[in-house]
């Protein structure tokens, strides 16, 4: 998930008038994303772009066309519809307190799924397996009625999710998978 523009209330008057294309491009900048992963290690699947404020459909369409032509934003090829666009003519909501964004004329929130997130799932699986092998905190869950077999099911589900991400990305690639990725995935399984 990303949101733009993220600016201080004091600078909202002069920085809040970014173009729709600039705001949209900012949302695909790795420094603007609200999850830790490297987007260069994967491809985006269809994204939802939610615009608020004084934005026309033609401006949103122009912004998505610009994204399609950027060299650092890659999409899976098996899905022809890359974007779902939502337009809301209301200005961005006011956040009470110190951070008041009532001065912003427009904003964008992007909800995106990317195969690059598989690296995060691999790391999560490693940590989960390490803690589960030591039975760390297991007693808290079993004490509440969870069976230990459900931990194995969760690990299998995570492994399947990683495989699904690899397959989604692999359908676009001619070559084989990176040996390190295969090794890390096998460690989880």
Written overview of the protein:
- The chain has 7 helices and 4 strands.
- The chain is α+β, with helices and mostly antiparallel strands and 189 residues long.
- It has 2 domains: 112 residues, Tubulin/FtsZ, C-terminal domain (60s Ribosomal Protein L30, Chain: A), CATH 3.30.1330.20; 71 residues, Orthogonal Bundle (Helix Hairpins), CATH 1.10.287.
- A 4-stranded mixed beta sheet has the order 1-4-2-3, covered by helices on one side.
- Strand 2, helix 3 and strand 3 form a beta-alpha-beta unit.
- Helix 2 crosses helix 3 and helix 4 runs parallel beside helix 7.
Throw out a few tags for this protein.
189 residues, alpha+beta, 60s Ribosomal Protein L30, Chain: A, Helix Hairpins, four-stranded mixed β-sheet, 7 helices, Alpha_tubulin, GTP-binding, GTP binding
Give a quick rundown of the structure.
The protein has about 190 residues and is α+β, with helices and mostly antiparallel strands. The chain is about 40% helix and about 10% strand. InterPro entries: Alpha_tubulin (IPR002452), Tub_FtsZ_C (IPR008280), Tubulin (IPR000217), Tubulin/FtsZ-like_C (IPR037103), Tubulin/FtsZ_2-layer-sand-dom (IPR018316), Tubulin_C (IPR023123).
List the helices and strands and how they pair.
Elements: E1 2-4, H1 12-15, H2 20-27, E2 47-53, H3 57-69, E3 83-88, E4 106-111, H4 118-133, H5 138-143, H6 149-170, H7 179-188
Parallel strand pairs: 2-3
Antiparallel strand pairs: 1-4, 2-4
Helix pairs in contact: 2-3, 4-6, 4-7
Supply the number of helical segments: 7
CATH class of the largest domain: Alpha Beta
Rg over CA atoms, rounded to whole Å, is: 21 Å
- The appropriate CATH architecture of the largest domain is 2-Layer Sandwich
Structural class: alpha+beta
Largest sheet features: 4 strands, mixed
* Gap between N and C termini: 28 Å
Shape: globular
Strand content: 5-15%
Number of domains: 2
State the strand order across the main sheet: 1-4-2-3
Ranges with pLDDT <50 over ≥5 residues? Answer: none
User: CATH superfamily assignment of the largest domain?
Assistant: Tubulin/FtsZ, C-terminal domain
Write down how many β-strands occur, each being a DSSP E stretch of 2 or more residues. 4
């Amino acid at each position: 998930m990303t949101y733009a523009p993220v600016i201080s209330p004091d600078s909202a008057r002069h920085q809040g008038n970014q173009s729709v294309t600039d705001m949209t491009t900012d949302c695909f900048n790795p420094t603007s994303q609200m999850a830790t992963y490297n987007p260069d290690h994967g491809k985006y699947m269809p994204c939802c772009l939610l615009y608020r404020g004084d934005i026309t459909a033609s401006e949103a369409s122009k912004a998505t066309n610009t994204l399609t032509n950027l060299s650092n934003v890659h999409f899976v090829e098996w899905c022809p519809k890359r974007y779902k666009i939502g337009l809301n003519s209301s200005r961005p909501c006011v956040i009470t307190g110190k951070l008041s964004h009532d001065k912003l004329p427009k904003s964008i929130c992007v909800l995106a799924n990317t195969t690059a997130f598989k690296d995060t799932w691999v790391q999560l699986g490693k940590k989960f397996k390490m803690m589960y092998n030591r039975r760390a905190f297991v007693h808290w869950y079993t004490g509440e009625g969870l069976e230990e077999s459900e931990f194995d099911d969760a690990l299998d589900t995570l492994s399947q999710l990683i495989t699904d991400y690899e397959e989604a990305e692999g359908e676009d690639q001619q070559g084989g998978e990176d040996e390190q990725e295969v090794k890390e995935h096998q460690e989880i399984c």
